[in-house]
Input
Amino acid sequence: MDSKEQDKDSLYLKLIPYFEKYGILLLLVIMIVVMHFLQPDVFLSWRNVTNVFKQISWQSMLALGVFMVIVTAGIDLSVGSIMMLSLMILAIVAKAGAPWYIVVITPLIAGFLCGLFNGLGITLLRMPHPFIMTLGTLYIFRGTGNLISGGTPISGFTDEVRYLGHGRIDLTWLGLEKSQYLPVSLVLIAIVYIIFWIFMNKTRTGKWIYAIGGNPNAARASGINVNKILVIVYSLCGFLSGIGALILAGRTDSGYPNAGLQSELDAIAACIIGGASFFGGRGTVLGVFAGVMIMGILRNGLNLMDVSSFWQQVLIGSIIVLAVYVDVLRRDFGTRK
Amino acid sequence: MSSANQLLLEAKNVTKYFGTITALENVNLKIHAGECLGVVGDNGAGKTTLMKVLSGLYKPSAGSLHFEGKEKVLESPRDSQNLGLEMVYQDLALAGNLPIGENIFLGREPTTNLGLLKFLDYKKIKELTEAHLGKLKINVKSADQKVEELSGGQRQAVAIARSTAFNAKVVIMDEPTAALAIKEVGKVLDLINSLKKTGVGVIVISHRMDDIFAVCDRVMALFQGTNFAESELSNTSRDEVIGWIMGKK
Output
């Protein structure tokens, strides 16, 4: 091999880790540019951009929770049901006349406890795969939500309860118009994602979550209490679903039986599109955010262009397959066999 | 550091049952500082079970473990690590998705604590890793390389580096050369010899007579879960040791 060819080869090899890290953001930027050209007046307007963020607000919480679970090579199918149950509990507590700070905290506790239930079930009952435990709780939690609410919607919350999902941060002091506000949910997404980015990348527990996904036997042999970490991960996933419930309560002003139906699949899709590997140990918080955004923008853009929701399903499905194929190719290049 | 020939670890009459199966029966084992003991035996002779008892993964059904003369009960691998007893597993027990340094310090990472949260000290991990790899003369491109990008021999070297990163006194290796290319075997054996020089007691479990006769000072054979034979290496031959493995004296 002559030196020129070698240089080219090593440049290519050097680019791989960057592509691995930021490739998904590139796809996101391309999508935004394409959408902008297709809908130049509307797509990047203040109103539409804030709309996208409001639409992805609660899904982004579920996706983040499922992401941590997927990093451990697990799966959580129950996040949609956890959110629905937490929402119903919130609605009942609100209707019972509890003060707003109690109402706001109940879905978080409920979500956390549901996640804890998953985690303990998976580890203590030694389920062969988290798929089974969380498939069971997908039915259990939704059924419980319907039992306690009688299967009927419960509507009407106070402004304080709705603040995170519905609140607006006024920006007129910046010289912007009244319609150019910042949704509180956007700020919440940013804060939660930054916290969990720090958690996954900078803390020891976060590192152990990746280690368990990479090789659970190595983690065990290193003296890591794998079961304890798994319980923490599923509990946090439930907690994030509880935050999702609080946001949804604000957005819809209602607890309703179909809340979060099939949203576990959206959450999983966002993780996979964002580069998380189903085999565990691989994926980034930034990637999940990009995955959520890609799905949100795709839906929003197709709606703007009046494309039927059937086509949206076809496109999202295609992107999942394509994203995973790119991951397969990357593994071929990057890993020694 | 332990003085030469000090008795580090002794297993006395270790017995292990799995249900009705007797995996180990009254097995004794001794390892001294700076010594390499080869443990041989056919498949199912109890080599791996014995190693897992020594590492704290299994609790013996009967018998006791003594470390530097004191009896110890190991509840988990963490207990044995705290005593300075380290394992290098046959499947290496490395997380391929993590870099070399994070694998070496996995479970024992240097951290900065902020309340309940423990933040990793990446800078320290990198410094300690480079110093440790340098000490063992292990060559890799960078401590930040992911383990899955390494060759089999390099992975074995990382696993051995991992086992010795915390002043190990006894290192137990399960088939350390089984998965390696021939030219990599020599490097791993050199590494074992340099560990011995630093006063570490090394137990090598192996099928390969070449390995046993290259690095060990003493060899013991297990047969059907019992001590079958034991000898200084200088007083035996390959053919005799192979006979022990088959159950012939």
